Each structure stands twice: as structure tokens, then as C-alpha cells.
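From the thread on structure requests for the teaching lab: each student submitted one protein with a one-line request. Submission from student K.M.:

"Model PIN domain-containing protein from Acaromyces ingoldii, C-alpha cells only."
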Amino acid sequence: MVPYTESQTQSSSSESSEPPASSRPKCEGKDALCKAMGALFLQHRVETLESDVEKLQYKRDTRARSTKGKGCPFGREGGREVGGSRGIGRDGLGSEGLSRLPATSKRTQPVERVIVADASLLIYSLRTVHEWIKAGNCHIVVPIEALSTLDVLKKGEHHINMAARKAMRFLDERCTRDALGSEDNDIFSKHSEAQPGLFAQREGQKLKPEEVEGLRMWLLDSNMMAPVDMHEGHLAWSFRKIPNYIRETLLCALWFLRSRINAVVRDGDALAPSFSLALALPPPHLDEFEDSAPSSNLRYAERADGRQIAHWAKTCCQDVHASSSSASEKGDWIIVAPTASSWLSAPCSVANGKGEQATSMMVSARPSAKIEQR
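Reply posted by the TA:
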């Protein structure tokens, strides 16, 4: 018997720990393949990220070129943070089909009506704005203050908050930012290149507070036939005491009213586009909407109440229809659009039996310009 030695043990263990020579190329091939696949994956990820960055930069550059020098875009890019453009209901709370029309573009049809849309119209009668855009002959201006009101009202779960978010999405899709240059503000001129559609208030489309009293006194004098020049008003009826959210919208509307008066007197053009300030009234049971959503905390609802701006507009220009030259002959100075049926049917249609359609209220000199009930 051969004695067992330590050298034999070491040699046998070393031989067993070393892999066979035939398996070494396979292990090296797997390692190389893993490294190559990892490198390809990282290269693909880098290329994807670079492509995404280029697309994002292109969108930003395009947006900057389209909005440069075109005034203020709608409500922080029209409220893109609130989601897509699908309707969330019917009529004022989320009209189905409101966003199905293509974005407003230049048309050959001339402008026949110029309308300043109060925030109350966008909250309680958004369908009316949709119909005016569809008609294709209206130049609709949304005051900056109305955009601010929508921005304040968009947060919350109340019906007004949801309507504000819907209105912001609608404005973002339907707004046109390139119809007029900053130097071309005279929409009522016979040489104007104004286009139909929906637009934000531009810089300069706003009356100064000290000019209001002059316009008011001029409108009260139906025999005065000269362009309106209002740099010496004294604000005898304390225009500055009006709440800011009403005053700013009213100053925008009065600027357009004065522009039309001057165009008619200066050019003698009775066919100039008509002008109207459009608003809507809240439903009589608005407090019941809040009761139906006890978790909501409704704030600033008074900013969307069309009754306030209607009161002050009538106070400013109570005799606006006294002279044919001082009022739009084809339209109305103040239009109270019908409140959307969704505001009238819920929740009080069951509780109070008041689900009937609201009547269109108008301050009108011509019955032919009335809005149809919907």
C-alpha cells in the first residue's frame, strides 16, 4: 500500500479547482456578450433621451415664436395643468362637442359683431360662446381680468370650479393669438384686417379711468357728433370705487364702445361691426350646488356674477341707445346670455321643481339681435 502524502492532496485539490480548458472560451464569450449588450442598451437610452430633449426644445421655441409680441396667453397656457380637452358633462359644466371644432383660423367672412366676454359668460353660458364662434362672423375678446377670474376659480370641487376648468381648456384650444398686430387695434375701422374668432385682450385695448366720465357725458348728449376725446374727465360718480375685477373688464368693454363710436363718426360708416358686452347670470339656486358638495369650499364666486358688471355698465352708459351714432345698430350694448341648462336642472330640478329653461334677458334696441334660447 502506497502511503498517503500531503503533496498528493495538494495536487489533487489544485486540479479539481481549475476549470477544464474546454470551458474557458465559453465563459469568456458570455462575459463579452453581456458587456456588449449593456453598452448597446446604454447607447439606446442616451439616444432616446437626446431625442426627447430636442423635441421639448423645439416645442418651446415654436411656442415662444407664436406668442412673441402677441399679448398675454390664456391663463398660464390656458390651464394645461388641468388635463385634456374632453367634455365632462353638458352645457356650462362641460359641454360635449365644445372642443370638436378646429382651432380658430383666418377666414374670408367679414366681422359683423365685436363681443367682449365677461367671466360670467364663460362660467354659466359657455355654449353661447361656442355658437358665436361657429357662426363665423364674431370677433370675441376675453378680457385679461376674466382670465384671472377663471384662474382663481379653477381650484376646488364645486360646480363653479369645474366650470372654470372647462372654460380654460376651451379657451386654450379655441384662442387665436395672431390675428392683429399690436399696432392694429382699431377693429371697427373700414380698413381693419380683424378676423372672426376668439382672442385675448391685447395691450392698449383698455380705457383709462380718467376717460370714463367723458365717454359717459358724451353718450348722454345725443346731439354731439364729433369723435370722442376723453382726457378731461372728473369721475363725478366715483368710478374708482368699483371693485377691481369689475372695473378692469368694464374698461376693456368701454374701450371697444368708444372705438366703434369714433369709427362711425369719423368714417360715416353705419355698417361698422356692432359691439356688445356679453355676460350671464348665476342660477337662482347656486347655494344648493354648494350644499350638494359639502366638502367643497367655494370662494370668489361673486367674481363670476354677471349682475354686478351689468349694474355698473348701465350706470356708465345708461342712455347708450339715445343716439343711433352712439350705439351699435345691429346689436346690443349689453347682452345677458341664457344660463346653461345644466345649471338650471341640477340639483334643484328635483328639490324645487325649477328645471325649466331660463329666459334670455337683453338690454336691446333691436329685437332681431336677440339670442335664441337653448
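TA comment: The chain is about 45% helix and 5% strand. Residues 113-178+194-341 form one domain.
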